[in-house]
Amino acid sequence: MSIEKILVVDDDDLSRGYLSEALQRNGYSVDNASDGQEAVSLTDKQNYDMLFLDMRMPRMGGMKVLERVKKTSKETTVVIMTAYGSIESAVEAMQKGAYDYIIKPFSVDNIELLLKRVQERQKLIDENKYWRSKLDSNVENEFVIDKQSKMFGVLNNVKRMAQSKASVLIQGESGTGKEIVAHSIYTHSQRNSKPFIKVNCAALSESLLESELFGHEKGAFTGADLKRMGRFELANGGTLLLDEISEVSPKIQAKLLRVLEQEEFERVGGVKTLKVDVRIIATTNRDLGQEIEKNNFRQDLYFRLNVIPVIVPPLRERREDIPVLAEYFLEKFKTGINTPLKRISKEAIDALVQYDWPGNVREIKNLIHRCTVMIDSEVLLSEHFENMLNVQKPRKTNELSVGQTIEDVEKELIYKTLEKTGGNKTRAAEILDVTPRTLRNKLSRYKELQSGFGLNIEAGIDDGSNVVEESFSH
Prior knowledge:
Keywords: ATP-binding, Nucleotide-binding, Phosphoprotein, Transcription, Transcription regulation, Two-component regulatory system. By secondary structure, the chain is an alpha/beta fold.
């Protein structure tokens, strides 16, 4: 809640006018009251961010007004003014909730310094409230990847894009680590000493999201008992993460576009235009191109957000990261709990690598966490995943599987026989009970697979003439 609307209460017309004019010159909205009762009447009707109260006034003094205001609006900043200052009255005023106590006469410079301190204090209070509400957040703030990972391309660009104020649009499936990329951009930016504020656009209705982003005035809607700063104000000077930007309504999209273009907005129920300096990072798990074609997303907003595009690949496209992630999460989750689990078997790693991970990094993280709690074994085996994931144990090389074609079985038998004979096709043909020419014709058909076995298929065959192909099941 920034300081915007101020009430000056003083029975001295000259002093009241002097202070009011100084405040108005500094851009504040100012109301005036000539005594305590008039002040109470005004505060009952509307909300003030700050009050300057004269100590001695007819009908009701400043101390009484202070008590009344603090009962109805604890967040209002109150400064007591008096020409009859004493240590005792200053202590009493502070005990009853006054922020400061100033002695008349005072200069405009003194008032401006006081207002600066009040604004800085209020900003710290607002930021503290926000971060305290986020203490239960469980966001990983670092990447765990293999040295050959495709993610290196993304991370190598983070430092470069972090130095700009340009908007960033991070696209990727759910659970791939889009928020970690966003936080990494913030960490490496020159704004890392300023707030990093996040809002989940998919979690709130249109009206609640509008209030969360832009704030609201007191009485703007039912339940708006106090003026509230939005996320844009909290993030002023820093970075705002708009998570799942594709889920916002056309109305909110229009307001976001205005902030991106003009860096200004109004609170819900307010008329004053507020200016902000905020870097926007947006994330989405949808194809915004398709959403634009469906008229679900504004193309002009997309262009404003997509100044720097970032694509986060799914885990199935960077399987080299799966073993590293599994080991990392095992070490992380077994720490501090009484679990016998110590390591992951090679077969279990193979099973994890074969799985496609529709939930990406989040899914493997949750799986390993579940295993540290539920598995009563020192070694994590592939069998342990059977009831947790649609993961099958790796098939032994000499096993047949329902669903294989005869040609698949024949192909596998040929290559295994060649492997056993060291690539000698004449010897392999004898074992398979076919002619060398038949074997050569079949290998020509499987040519695209030869590189995976590293065999010299020309060795051991000295007759290149064509013959009628024989079947293995003659």
